[in-house]
Amino acid sequence: MPAPTAKPNARSKLLDAALSMIRAKGYSATTVDELCAAAGVTKGAFFHHFRNKDELGVAAAEHWSEVTGALFAAAPYHDHADPLDRVLGYLAFRKALLQGGVPDFTCLVGTMVQETYETAPAIRDACDRSISTHARTLEADIEAAMRDRAMSPDWTPESLALHIQAVLQGAFILAKAKGGPQVAADSMDHLTRYLTLLFCAGGDTPNPKGD
Amino acid sequence: MPAPTAKPNARSKLLDAALSMIRAKGYSATTVDELCAAAGVTKGAFFHHFRNKDELGVAAAEHWSEVTGALFAAAPYHDHADPLDRVLGYLAFRKALLQGGVPDFTCLVGTMVQETYETAPAIRDACDRSISTHARTLEADIEAAMRDRAMSPDWTPESLALHIQAVLQGAFILAKAKGGPQVAADSMDHLTRYLTLLFCAGGDTPNPKGD
DNA sequence: GATTACATACCAACCAGTCGGTATCTTTAA
DNA sequence: TTAAAGATACCGACTGGTTGGTATGTAATC
């Protein structure tokens, strides 16, 4: 990638179109022809930049990581002094992103991995990288919040960061099923409540199942 | 439906095959031909029982509701005397179901609604019904647990039941991305911890955001 | 002048869905 | 008791449009 900034060339037009089209219709139902039409390029351009459809899927996941990575890196929740406030601010930011139609606020890689995890390992790995890398941006703050409170729980910062991602992904599924963001916002409130309780009311309680 | 028990006729063979095939490959990538081959029936039989592919999708969601509904109705977690123990027992039961390959323990309707929520409203509604009806089986126990503790929180039993479903659905997405159930089990542990904290350590704390 | 970045035309395989036909089960009435 | 009559369940060849992918050509750029 010599040019990090995206000129309106065929490749980036295809990737941008892929983000919205795959989020709306899923990966399998997104056809190369439709994608080219939406991006305003020809099929020749598509197969010039991508060897096949799966390679576009991988590139779309990576493009998604870059776009969302920049969005979250520039978000204001990092400014809080207390690390727990930064984590809670992250969740508030996620909740504030629930705007527009369902395809506008849902997650590309969460959608795509559901269809491809068995049939396209390259896409699954790209989606895993996207989710896991994003989750890792929360780990330092979680760990700092634990240290501030001298907590030594039986869960790891990584597992909590991944749990947060799981709640968000699940909230999107419910929003899709119910046709609106309200149920997702409610779920994010429950998650916020969990973090508040966990760090302020009893984070050292042993694992209720003991395993 | 005069005969509630499933004879090995073409329709139920197709529905059973659909459950596993759609969970593994997704709805769009599941072709009618492949489905018929897996079920051991012909295409003529398919279009005798279903007007089109979408109608199979709806029927598959309903079949899924019946199969899983019977599974959960017969599960032992209902035997606990305390309603909170029944809810926690439900979660332990869900965790115990994380056996076999990823397609074996993931949720059909969560998978299907992601691909169809924009393009096939009938399927989306069927998936919503499946999830919401299942969530509703938890509401009475949640409400009873609240009453036992004289709680008057700013969340409803319905929202908590749906949040539980969101965590489960999200856990399945993470399991698909990571290729195994461990991350899903970890997320279910966090959810169990949330319920424990919520009902035993501070369920009356006000909404941290205040909205 | 050669590599890159597209455009156009084309293809074989595949897709959901159709259709004429057969086997079997149910109803009815002589 | 049985047989005509109709409905249901299923079969499998066929179709027309779509699919991902290719082959080849051309204009711009390095």
From TrEMBL, chains A, B:
Pfam families: TetR_C_13, TetR_N. The keyword Transcription regulation applies. It comes from the Bacteria. GO terms for molecular function: DNA binding. Signal peptide: none annotated. Residues 8-68 form the HTH tetR-type domain. PROSITE patterns: HTH_TETR_1, HTH_TETR_2. Gene3D superfamilies: Tetracycline Repressor, domain 2 (1.10.357.10). The keyword DNA-binding applies. Keywords: DNA-binding, Transcription, Transcription regulation. Residues 31-50 bind DNA. This is TetR family transcriptional regulator. It comes from Paracoccus versutus (Thiobacillus versutus). The lineage of its organism: Bacteria, Pseudomonadati, Pseudomonadota, Alphaproteobacteria, Rhodobacterales.
